[in-house]
Amino acid sequence: MADLDGSQLLVALFALILVSGIVQSLSGFGFALLSAPLLAATIGGPQAISTILITGTACDIAILAMRRSVPRPDTREVLTLAGWSAPGMLAGAWLLAALPAVGLQVFVAATVIAAVVLRLRARARQGIVSGRWAIPAGLLSGAFSTSTSLGGPPTVYYLVHRGLKPHTMRDTLVTLSLVRLPLSVISLLVAGVWETYAYWPVLIVAALLGQHLGTQAFHRFGHARYEHIVLALLTAAALVSVAAIILR
Predict the structure, then answer these.
(1) pLDDT: which is higher, 232 or 155
(2) What are phi and psi of 126, to 5 degrees?
(3) Residue 125 carries which DSSP code?
(4) Phi and psi at residue 75, to the nearest 5°
(5) What confidence score (pLDDT) does residue 76 get?
(6) In angstroms, what CA-CA distances link 31 with 4, 43, 95?
(7) How far apart are CA 223 and CA 167, in angstroms?
(8) What is the pLDDT of residues 11-52, one digit of tens each?
(9) Structural contact between residues 131 and 84, judged by C-beta atoms closer than 8 angstroms
(10) Are 56 and 203 in contact (CB under 8 A)?
């Protein structure tokens, strides 16, 4: 992918963000899991983080706005996880500034693969856990969010064990992303690593189109195949992350 010229790169990134938008609409997370590895490999870590924040936020807003019913996130979970994410975000922004490009790519790949393992464990060990586990989940999620944009896995693993229904879990994850957005931007600005990709407005269109397609798919089979969809997407993201390192 390093040989792509400007226009070819834009087309490739448009397709990547489109698919990521579909993923996000289906499960409420996964946008960064799929797009972060290839974005970091092509436009660099800092621009990848800002691009995911911008396009992912557009997708999240559209998901909530286009709901056929009033969104019903678990407000207590959102506020608790967001609060504990704040110190983790500062640490993650520092890590983004300190890690070399290759080191960041390896870190992204390891995080995605760990997400697959966590999801498999979550499927094997169903049950309700204490709300105190929101503390480490929030800290880790915040750190991963600003260092790799992969803040989803820790919160997903935690929320899966809180007994939330698919719609509630998706709304909770999407709302959490929106609540944490200002904290993420501030952390990146403080660390001096906020950079934007020149054609990010075009990628917003891709994210919104993907969101629309994903929402249609979710209403068609989201309830019946929810768990299988999430696991398949995480596995695909892990394979993409390894390929991104090999192609670098």
Answers:
(1) 155
(2) -75, 150
(3) S
(4) -60, -40
(5) 92
(6) 23, 17, 21
(7) 8
(8) 999 999 998 888 777 766 678 877 887 888 788 888 999 999
(9) no
(10) no
